[in-house]
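Researcher: Following up on the earlier apo prediction. This time include the ligand. It's magnesium ion, with the SMILES given after the sequence.
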Amino acid sequence: MAILGLAWKSLVNRRATAALTVFSIALSVTLLVGVDRLRHEARASFANTISGTDLIVGARSGGIQLLLYSVFRIGSPTNNMGWASYQDLANHPRVAWTVPISLGDSHRGYRVMGTTTAYFQHYRYGRDRALAFAAGGPFDDLYDAVLGAQVVRQLGYRLGDELVVAHGAADVDFTRHEDKPFRVAGILRATGTPVDHTVHVSLQAIEAIHVGWQGGAPMPGFEVPAERLRAMDLTPDEITAVLVGLTSRMAAFQVQRYVNDYKAEPLTAILPGVALSELWNLMAVAENALLVVAAFVVVVGLVGMLTALLASLNERRREMAILRSVGARPVHVFALIMGEAGVLTLGGIGLGLALLYGLVLSARAVMAQHLGLHIAVTAPGGGEVMLLGAVAVAGFVVGIIPAYRAYRLSLADGLSIRV
Amino acid sequence: MSDGTTGTHGQAPAGDTAVIRIRDLAFRWHPRESVVLALHELMVERGEQVFIEGPSGSGKSTLLGLLAGVSVARQGEVRVLDRRLDTLGAAARDHFRAHHIGYIFQMFNLIPYLSMTDNVILPCRFSRRRRQRALQRSPSLEAEALRLLGHLDMDEPAFHRRPVTALSVGQQQRVAAARALMGSPELLIADEPTSALDGDRRESFLRLLFDECRASGATLVFVSHDRSLEGLFQRTIRLADINGAVLTTATGG
Ligand SMILES: Nc1ncnc2c1ncn2[C@@H]1O[C@H](COP(=O)(O)OP(=O)(O)OP(=O)(O)O)[C@@H](O)[C@H]1O
Ligand SMILES: [Mg+2]
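Model: Understood. Below is the ligand-bound prediction.
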């Protein structure tokens, strides 16, 4: 249509203000879609804090509580599960692998977790990512430790350094396992999961450093030298939880029922994916608030466009009269302003998307390395297309205001030129 | 020539050659306001070049608005090219104007963001009829625009590269005249297009305009309060004399 060509030329003529308007809309679109994408990535990444594990089993408790201490190392279990129960579970025909974990000690604010080398083999996060070593390897010796990336970054350990583990979560002097120092045998790559904040040792080591302890304190006169412990049987009596892999996903409910109905002691089995999304939903308010703020920024951008268009109208009344004199109808005048609003909005959306992709491409590597957040470069998804559509509709609705005003003015002015 | 006034009151010639025929018109801007324009009869023949003279506020622009179909008469008859504008709907009047009327304003006729040729071509964007007529004369709209600009001494290449706002007022008015003539509309309406020009340039502009109107067979209705121009026209109509409305601003009567 001829009038859209006019709208375009008129914008080109006022390119400085038009470019600013497009840019402000673009920034708000980048923010809106960026927040939405980050929200989804964060959710997906959170849901994949632990993946590939079909069930998590621990002493009877709430599902989220079990998830919090076994995966996020937040809080402590009120009860442990017995080694015999663990053996029963590991021997269940549907169970492919198990990773027992034992929590309770800490090192300078970081949780110490006892486990087996199966952990490094079976633990998955993200979209089926395995743990990888930045240096060294799994623990081999009784007093070997494997550190998460964040522990190393904060405390500056290197391979071969010694560290002392404290009893309980509080690192207080008198409860340190001073006599049994550990040696750093491996350093893990960043995962963006709680693994980064964990000091891993073997289950036997956890057992060894507690020999001769009772009620959270060493019993005087019962200290056993570190080297003599090597000869002892260090099979634990109890563990905190078990990560379970099944022979088939289908078996999850069957095994879950087996665990929940286990007679010898009360146990709980959770599906980590379900528990994770329950936990995420607790935080959904903050997530939505962020999106609402981003939406308001878009409104601000569109109000900027409204201001620019309305301000230009008065000086354009002459132009409207000229257009009317060559046969333009008042609806043409309406369409001219709507066309400008449309070009500004769509231009803003296009530039906004370009900015977003530029940002994602350039920040991708850094985000993956430091936050463990893996943002995929994909075409806008359904939700994003809806958001962009909403911005476009809002832009056109906002455009109606100056367009209608221009329409009224050109009806009233007719061919008389007013400035 | 001052005789022209009485000519409008005389017996009208055969209707088929009249481009404008107004009868018993009474126009008021608002229903509650008084009548600004009351014309018993006003006729303009095809091909005529008419000068409508009147003091400020006598209703010249109001009359042109009625002829261009922007305002509507609620009382009386306004016929342009044998079409009753007073009974046409708003959209039909806009189309009528696009097809049949070229309009020149007093000043600042050009759209600042369009090039000189785009300004001249503008009427063809709103009227298929004028586009076709322009294309009958020249192979393309641009060629026709340049042809008209050439006739008005505006074909210097330097002008084409400049934004239209950088042209002098006289040059802008010639571009406006070319636009009004584009696609050969039957009726050219000019609302004091020379008031910003000095004496010499005013006359040369008018002669160019006359020549072009004659060449395309267009009728010219030219409005001004400047009596010094009337000698150049075939006929003069003194609006104050034929306007029956009692105007507070009008001095004549
Ligand atoms: N849009 C309008 N609404 C209301 N009244 C108007 C409007 N336009 C003109 N008038 C009134 O109609 C009368 C005639 O005005 P008009 O503009 O036709 O005069 P004019 O002869 O063109 O004067 P000038 O030589 O100053 O241009 C004036 O009293 C004016 O105030
Ligand atoms: Mg006037």
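Model: Chain A has a mean pLDDT of 87.
Researcher: Noted. I'll compare it with the apo version next.
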